[in-house]
Here is the input.
Amino acid sequence: MTQAPTPTADTVRRLVLSLLKDGSQANTGARDERGGDTARHGGPDVRPATEGAEPTTWWVGTRHVLRLAADREATARRRRELRLRDLVRPHVPVAVPASVAHGEWAPGLVYTLDTRLPGGSGERHDVSAVGEADLAGLLTGLREVPVRQAETLGVPRLAPRSLESLRRAAVRAAQRLDEADEFDAARLHQLTPPAAAQLAAQPHAAVLTHHALSAGHLVVGADGRVRGVLGWSAAVIGDPAEDIAGLALAVGAPAAVRAATLAGYGARPCLRGLWLARCDAVVGLAGALTGTDTTLPRTRLRHAWEPILLERVTDLGATDDAL
Here is the structure.
């Protein structure tokens, strides 16, 4: 298989300029030299959105973002994502990026030039109480998307994870964290094997899930409102508790459970999502201890283990002390 070329600022700039045949640089957010968005050598200012040797996501001016698929698998996901976003958009109360242009930037590899949603990353801005209502609307809307229509777009089905298998992995990881004085392993004793069995995913409960609701994929305004959601290429038809878990890691367990409850989810999926998040956070931090930067795993662990109060849990054999 031919290796993909390495995307550079010149590659991106030439591509963007080729999309501006009418000369309207304003369409990509570029301005004149006084505006500061146009590079000295002509064309819109472009810069990598993330650090890395081969960046595939680029800011274009102030109003757009260009994403380049690095391989055939990513190309298939990008093409599916374009259609999925159009399907999801009418159902959710938050903004979903829209593509203003798409095509191939290299043979067999696609690009999408998307509108840049106004707001900041959820990694930098806290979600307010009204923002939790936005997240509830997101979860509600995803549940309302017709599963069959999503499947016709190629969205895959994903079987629910075994909470018991994850619990066992988390217990082993918690021991390592305990030895490193990072986490009290006894806290995981709250999730017993019988409780994990009770919190197994319910049959026929599959819905369209974003499946990557990280803080980096939430666009949050200065007022704490959730203005948009990015990163739809990982969407699957599967366990709605996975999105509750993602929110617990992103914005904290209490906010995630409140949003899920507002969306109409009962105690079982909320508790399942909570424990998926807690176990994932423990396993994630244990795996990151050998690295140099554990800021994000520690933040996710803190978010997932924030104490919550949840009503209607007695039928699951749980108590508030176990939350």
Q: What stands out?
A: Confidence is low (pLDDT under 50) at residues 22-40, 311-317, 319-323. Strands lie at 46-48, 57-60, 64-68, 99-106, 109-115, 120-121, 207-209, 218-220, 226-229, 236-238.
